[in-house]
Specification:
Radius of gyration of chain A: 19 Å
Pfam family, one (chain B): Rnf-Nqr
Strand content of chain B: under 5%
Number of domains of chain B: 1
GO molecular function (chain B): oxidoreductase activity
Shape of chain B: globular
Oligomer: heterodimer
Number of strands of chain A: 2
Shape of chain A: globular
Number of strands of chain B: 0
Helix content of chain A: over 70%
Order of helices and strands of chain A: HHHHHHHHEEH
Number of domains of chain A: 1
Structural class of chain B: mainly alpha
Order of helices and strands of chain B: HHHHHHHH
Largest interface: A-B, 41 and 41 residues
Family (chain B): Belongs to the NqrDE/RnfAE family.
Distance between the termini of chain B: 17 Å
Radius of gyration of chain B: 18 Å
Strand order of the largest sheet of chain A: 1-2
Largest sheet of chain A: 2 strands, antiparallel
EC number (chain B): 7.-.-.-
Helix content of chain B: over 70%
Number of helices of chain B: 8
Subcellular location (chain B): Cell membrane; Endomembrane system
Amino acid sequence: MFRLWKIFSKGLIMENPIFVLALSLCPALAVTTTVVNALTMGLSVMFVLSANNVVVSLTRKLVNHKVRVPIYITSIATIVTLVQLLLQAYAPLLYKDLGIYLSLIVVFAIILARAEVFASKNSVVPSFFDGFGMGCGFTLAMLIIGTIRELVGNGTILGYNILGHAYQPALIMILPPGAFLLIGYLVGASKLFNQYLEKRQKARGEVV
Amino acid sequence: MNDYLLLFIGAVIVNNFVLTRFLGLCIFFGVSKNLKASVGMGMAVTSVIFISSIFAYGVYNFILVPLHVTFLTTIVFVLLIASFVQLLEMVIRRYLPALYKMWGIYLLLIATNCVVLAVPLINIESNFSFAKSLVNALGSGVGFAVAIILMASLREKLRLAEVPKPLEGLGIAFIVAGFLSLSFFGFSGMIK
């Protein structure tokens, strides 16, 4: 149980796909203009990541090592297509907002990386938790970026006005340059935070 | 003619691939540490986008549409492009070893990359004709090359600057890209 929690939780902060591993940055910048878009993208990626890890792990003994990458890609593309069809049917507006970035989940480095590094070597349950944890970390990062951008750039969160009408929205945060600047500072902040965690762990280790 | 010119300039500057559409960021930040590598990468990406757009246009209009299986577009395009790039790599390695030495590694990096997949998808989404698809592909590739070469030149200068410790590396690269993007933003509104 503890092992599973460890597998799950490493994706949240210490190995956060966006801030620390710097994988799959395109969507983190492109679809985070509002919280809703960021959340939908995050959940889609979480679903694809966990489902693909399960598929890869289930078939890990059947797949010839030499052709594994095309097989992974096919599996990912199939799951992404499922998500696309589902969103198109039940949330057509969101589907339109996410647009091309939804198809591009197929080539997110993080999904292929988890299949290769983790799922192809571990059994189903740990693989699921690895994908789920990484997906949660991804969603968390998307939410943080989406919330800051919507709040500063539009004065709202989830469409509700938070900062009042006197607030002059800083439009740049919704525009592309703001996304780059924000991520730059967030990467720096997460580096500081992880350094702090490591230091604390070291200090504790010495005491014990 | 005017139409095509506007489309080309639009793809290069106004809707710059990296700086306003955020595609190909992994390569953009990974390779732009080195100016020479950036030039090679820009050229490799441009040619792969151009050729895969041709293939994608053919496959979509002559296979997927007649069979009514357009929902398979994503799967088919990914496999098409990945296998095409692998093939290209083999051919270049066999017949043009000098070029392979310059480009080889980049080709493999491009194989499953969002830039190369995105352009054919955008072409289809916008209902471009064959000629327009080609112009858009060329423009997107050149736009990518311009952005990555600019970024590499900036980062070579950056090496001499004193950067706050937590921002070193990726952090400052993003902030610089932000300012670069801001300057490209000045072109918006030039073309609708």
